[in-house]
Design brief:
single chain; about 140 residues; mainly alpha; 5 helices; about 75% helix; about 0% strand
Length: about 140
């Protein structure tokens, strides 16, 4: 009688990736609210709209991807990877453009929180790595069963 070793399904990476994606999506929903406030009251309508649209896009991707991962659906992995990459690109753009004196997402020269923005890259990178891991691909293939 042959003994076979069971390969883990990947919930150890898929579930944390889903949780991080959902938390990131909720964080960006706060940015959506901030963008809406900027559109309503800021004299710079373009900056307010940019803030609103960017946060809404990233929030939508991360929340849809996180729910898809919880449900162990292949689209969840793909959308989470795209959402985490979009969030990371957004944070890097804020850092680079802020260093050049171009401020958006509600930031001005006197309030540019470089350390805070750099720290935001950590959960985005972690989400990206966990969602891209081979065990997560097994998770979305095998699911909860």
């Amino acid at each position: 009688m042959a003994v076979t070793k069971e390969v883990p399904r990947g919930g150890a990476t898929g579930i944390p990736a889903a949780v991080l994606a959902l938390l990131g999506g909720l964080f960006h929903l706060i940015g959506v609210a901030g963008g809406a406030v900027m559109v309503a009251g800021d004299s710079d309508l373009g900056r307010g709209l940019l803030t609103f649209v960017l946060h809404l896009s990233v929030a939508g991707l991360l929340i849809i991807g996180g729910v898809g991962l919880v449900l162990a659906k292949p689209f969840g992995q793909t959308v989470t990877i795209v959402g985490a990459a979009a969030a990371l690109l957004l944070y890097v753009a804020v850092l680079l453009l802020g260093a050049l004196g171009v401020y958006f997402l509600g930031l001005t020269g006197s309030t540019l929180p470089l350390g805070y923005t750099a720290v935001l890259c950590v959960p985005a990178v972690t989400t990206l790595v966990l969602a891209s891991a081979p065990p997560t691909a097994r998770w979305v293939t095998n699911g909860w069963s």
